[in-house]
Specification:
single chain, 338 residues, alpha+beta, Jelly Rolls, 6-stranded mixed β-sheet, globular
Length: 338
């Protein structure tokens, strides 16, 4: 395996006001150095972990417990399955945010601290006012803004359907990315039994077992990596695989997810799951025929698939809108309930 992956492309001296124009043009990952370096949260984190905790506490809703993921010290920060994949190596519990923050401070510099990880917590619900004081204008409608808080952690490579802008607000992060076409070399786990909702790579990046996962060497050859400090950000396009590591005893990440499609569109993973149900068991010749159908009706560009049909008669093959999407869902529900 190569000693280190290649770097992620970097952008420097970018004014945040330029993001709305740039984001729609980016189709590959970008590290944006210092993008949120002027946030009060970042200034507090650079002063000390205590100052960062104090900054967060001033926004704490107080009545809503957060979901905290905890793992024993021998997990070494890896949030993952248990040994035989019958369950997981962590547990989740509802805890007041104040207690989580105080516990993280308590375990700073501990030689064998448990992993403590608050993942994907909606900013506006749990920390109202944080976004106003630590602003980010993306030029997209209704992005989902979340905060991630914890100590040293390793989150297995996975992908997200939305585009993602992840901003380091405290601590350091190592981000390792792979193009979507590396799915076959990353040895993904189950789609329907996952640590946090998305299928994850079963390869331990800290000690890859190439006897068990030999194709991972090919994935590693295409990997891109960056270490981010407070104020830095990374843009991760849709479906790019990302392995995230919190490198310090106190880490905070703020991220924004969005999809450049109307809200009424469906989740692509639903189509994949239904395709597994309907197509995977077909004879090879029939699967090839259905691949041709999908290429023609779903993945082809231009009007060739429908040009011969009058516009008023194209139905689902014509431009989709909210009403047509509702009709398609109604038809699917009836068919799936047979």
């Amino acid at each position: 395996m190569p000693a280190t992956p290649g770097p992620i492309d970097e952008v420097r001296d970018l004014d945040r006001s330029q993001l709305p124009a740039l984001l729609p043009t980016w189709t590959t990952p970008k590290v944006i150095r210092g993008l949120v370096g002027d946030w009060p949260m970042v200034a507090a984190a650079q002063a000390s972990a205590d100052a960062a905790v104090a900054h967060l506490k001033q926004y704490d809703h107080g009545t809503l417990p957060v979901t905290a993921t905890t793992a024993p010290p021998d997990a070494q920060g890896r949030i993952f399955y248990n040994a035989d994949m019958s369950g997981f190596n962590f547990r989740r519990e509802q805890i007041p945010l104040k207690v989580v923050l105080d516990t993280l401070l308590k375990y700073r510099n501990a030689p064998a601290a448990p992993t403590i990880y608050v993942a994907s917590t909606t900013l506006d619900s749990f920390l109202p006012g944080f976004r106003q004081d630590n602003p980010m204008a993306l030029g997209v409608d209704d992005p989902l803004a979340s905060i991630w808080i914890g100590n040293r952690s390793r989150i297995a490579a996975h992908h997200d359907v939305p585009d993602n802008l992840a901003c380091v607000a405290a601590g350091r992060r190592r981000v390792t990315l792979f193009p979507p076409d590396q799915v076959g070399n990353l040895y993904m786990g189950p789609l329907d039994f996952t640590p946090a909702g998305q299928a994850v790579s079963l390869v331990d990046f800290a000690a890859p077992d190439l006897d068990r996962f030999p194709r991972f060497e090919r994935a590693w050859a295409s990997a891109q990596v960056a270490e981010l400090g407070p104020g830095d950000a990374v843009f991760i396009p849709s479906l790019w695989w990302h392995h995230m590591e919190g490198l310090d005893d106190f880490n905070v990440l703020v991220n924004y997810w969005w999809r450049p499609v109307p809200a009424w569109t469906d989740a692509p993973m639903n189509a994949l799951m239904l395709s597994l149900l309907a197509l995977r068991s077909l004879p090879p010749a029939q699967r090839r025929h259905w691949r041709a159908m999908f290429d023609h009706f779903v993945f082809a560009t231009g009007a060739d698939a429908t040009a011969h049909i009058p516009e008023h008669a194209r139905g689902v093959l014509g431009p989709l809108d909210e009403a047509m999407a509702a009709n398609v869902r109604s038809v699917l529900r009836k068919r799936l309930e047979r």
